Structures are given as structure tokens and as C-alpha cells.
């Protein structure tokens, strides 16, 4: 490995040309990303943000307009073979040749990568994606969840150190989602660097060490999951008085405050602009008899809405 990063992307741009059915569309406006080896990295963004375009450029399926990308230290233009050998991609769309069974799908893919018969791990991979008992089932007859697992297996036949999953859990039920999460964690524990795209915040929060939020083809923010949550600049302080309140006390009139339906005082504030001490002082000045104080912090969902609203 030549680089400390599993994937490095600089100034990546993509403009889809005008066609009969669609106008010219700039899907990526200059993306910079560095994905650390060994991490689970989340590319989070709403539909149409450009996530699949980015993944498909890495997969060699979409031609970039400008910028550079390297995979495991190999530039995708200068060294496409090595770049491809080090990445496995599970596409968003499920597609298999319907006339091959699960085992054959994996064998064909191994052949495609030029892996000699004696070095193939077909049985091991079937086991890993829990399809051993379906090895002779035509791919068209597999359930949606099984097809997805087969796609993961297919992406892993050449044992790449990086696995990219494009919306691995879009449209799957809760149970299968949990199972996919488990598999992602297991693969990462075995040393595989994972990149996944998702529009589910919950998923990014659950799985990822680091998250880049992208919207309209730009990285809006990129940070560790912990920092994203910590730096979130909105908190709520809920003050329960001895009696129901009917109006916001005068000392707090200059703050964003209201009385909720339970008669509690709700104060919204940005911790970076005002500290809790000042708010408590204002409360003391109002001579309220306080029986309870609670604070709530926004979750990733709020950050996401905050950052992607345009
Ligand atoms: P995401 O995966 O985040 O939902 P995509 O990368 O699929 O986003 O799409 C980003 C933008 O590029 C969207 O506006 C989409 O309509 C457009 N787009 C994607 N693929 C094509 C294509 N093959 N031709 C033209 N426009 C495309
Ligand atoms: Mg997509």
C-alpha cells in the first residue's frame, strides 16, 4: 500500500451531458475526500446528491469530468487495473444474469478477475453471506435480501481491502437492515475498509466512524460521527416551574423561548453563542420556582436538515 488513505479524491467533478431525455446536469461540483484505511466511512445525502455518481466513478462505470481519485494508492486513470483490484463495489441497483445460480455468479466474477480455480473462495463467500444452502438456486429465484447478500459476496470474490456499498439497505425491512449492519461490522472487524452511501441518518450514526454529508454535488461537512454530534450548535433547555407558566418571563424575552403545551418554558439556544450559566442567571432573575431542568440536544437528523436545507 502506497498511501495512508484507502481512497483519496481531489476536485472530483462530473457533468452529465445533455441527452434527448435530460438536460445537462452537474452531479459533482468538486469533491475532496480522504477515507482512512480501516474505517467505516459514510457518504450521507438526500436522493440526487451525487452519491452514486461518486461511487460509479470509483467503480469505473462513470467517466469523471475533472479531478483525481486514487484507490489504495493507485490512481484510477494511471493504474486502473490495480485500482480495481483493491475495491469491491456493491451497486445500488440489483442486477444478475437470471440464468446463473448463486455459485455460478461468484465463479464467473472470480473468472472475470482472473483468479485461478484453486485460489477461489466460492464456498467461503457463500458461507459468509449465508447462501450456502442456496448455492444452486437461480439468482432470479432468490429473495430481495438474498440477492443483496449475493451482491456483497460478488464484490468480495477478489478479496479487496475496500468494500463500497451503495445504499445497502434502501428499501429493505428492519430485520434485514440489522443483518446487513452486522455483516458490515464483521467485515470491518476483519480489516476491510468500508464505504457506504445512505440517506438514512440512523444508519450512518450506527455504523460510521466518519461521515461526509453531501448535497447538490458538494461536501457540506465531513467529520467524525462523534464530532458531528458534539458540534451541533443547537440545544434546548426545558424548564418546569412549580406552576404552569403562561408567558415567557421578561428576563428571557431576548431569547428564543416559548411556553409549551405542558406549561413548561422551552428555551432554544446555541451553546457556542451563549453559555448555560447566563441562561440560568436570567432564570434566577425571573424568580421562577423551578422544579426541573432538562436539556435536549439535536441528533444527526437535525444536523442533516440544518445542513442540507437550501
Ligand atoms: P444519489 O445517488 O445521491 O441519489 P446520483 O449520483 O444518482 O445521486 O445523481 C446525482 C444527480 O445526477 C441527479 O440529479 C441525477 O438526476 C443526475 N444523474 C445521475 N445519473 C445520471 C445520468 N446517467 N445521466 C444524467 N443525469 C444523471
Ligand atoms: Mg444513489
Give an overview of the whole structure.
The chain is α/β, with parallel strands linked by helices. The chain has helices at residues 51-58, 80-85, 102-112, 122-128, 144-156, 174-189, 201-207, 225-230, 276-285, 300-308; strands at residues 5-16, 25-36, 40-44, 66-71, 74-75, 87-90, 162-166, 193-198, 210-215, 218-224, 235-241, 256-259, 265-269, 290-297. It has two domains: 5-230, 3-Layer(aba) Sandwich (Rossmann fold), CATH 3.40.50; 235-298, 2-Layer Sandwich (Alpha-Beta Plaits). It contains ten helices and 14 strands. Strand 1 and strand 2 form a beta hairpin. The radius of gyration is 25 Å and the shape is elongated. Residues 51-52, 92, 166-167 line the site of magnesium ion.
What's the short story on this structure?
By secondary structure, the protein is α/β, with parallel strands linked by helices. The chain has helices spanning 51-58, 80-85, 102-112, 122-128, 144-156, 174-189, 201-207, 225-230, 276-285, 300-308; strands at residues 5-16, 25-36, 40-44, 66-71, 74-75, 87-90, 162-166, 193-198, 210-215, 218-224, 235-241, 256-259, 265-269, 290-297.
Amino acid at each position: 500500500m502506497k498511501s495512508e488513505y484507502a481512497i483519496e479524491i481531489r476536485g472530483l467533478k462530473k457533468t452529465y451531458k445533455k441527452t434527448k431525455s435530460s438536460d445537462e446536469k452537474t452531479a459533482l461540483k468538486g469533491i475532496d475526500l480522504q477515507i482512512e484505511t480501516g474505517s467505516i466511512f459514510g457518504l450521507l445525502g438526500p436522493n440526487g446528491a451525487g452519491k452514486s455518481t461518486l461511487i460509479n466513478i470509483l467503480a469505473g462505470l462513470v467517466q469523471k469530468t475533472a479531478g483525481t481519485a486514487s484507490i489504495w494508492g493507485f490512481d484510477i486513470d494511471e493504474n486502473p487495473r490495480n485500482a480495481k483490484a483493491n475495491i469491491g463495489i456493491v451497486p445500488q441497483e440489483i442486477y444478475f444474469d437470471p440464468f446463473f445460480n448463486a455459485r455460478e455468479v461468484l465463479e464467473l466474477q472470480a473468472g472475470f478477475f482472473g483468479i485461478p480455480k484453486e485460489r477461489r473462495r466460492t464456498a467461503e463467500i457463500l458461507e459468509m453471506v449465508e447462501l450456502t444452502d442456496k448455492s444452486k438456486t437461480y439468482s432470479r429465484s432468490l429473495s430481495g435480501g438474498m440477492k443483496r447478500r449475493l451482491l456483497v459476496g460478488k464484490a468480495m470474490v477478489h478479496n479487496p481491502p475496500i468494500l463500497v456499498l451503495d445504499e445497502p439497505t434502501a428499501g429493505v425491512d428492519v430485520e434485514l437492515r440489522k443483518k446487513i449492519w452486522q455483516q458490515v461490522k464483521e467485515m470491518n472487524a476483519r480489516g476491510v475498509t468500508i464505504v457506504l452511501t445512505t440517506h438514512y441518518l440512523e444508519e450512518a450514526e450506527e455504523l460510521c466512524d466518519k461521515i461526509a454529508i453531501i448535497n447538490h454535488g458538494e461536501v457540506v461537512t465531513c467529520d467524525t460521527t462523534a464530532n458531528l454530534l458534539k458540534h451541533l450548535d443547537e440545544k434546548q433547555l426545558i424548564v418546569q416551574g412549580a406552576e404552569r407558566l403562561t408567558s415567557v418571563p421578561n428576563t428571557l424575552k431576548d431569547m428564543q423561548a416559548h411556553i409549551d403545551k405542558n406549561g413548561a418554558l422551552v428555551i432554544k439556544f446555541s451553546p457556542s453563542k451563549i453559555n448555560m450559566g447566563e441562561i440560568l442567571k436570567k432564570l434566577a432573575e425571573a424568580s421562577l420556582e423551578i422544579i426541573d431542568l432538562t436539556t435536549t440536544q439535536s441528533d444527526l437528523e437535525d444536523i442533516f436538515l440544518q445542513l442540507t436545507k437550501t
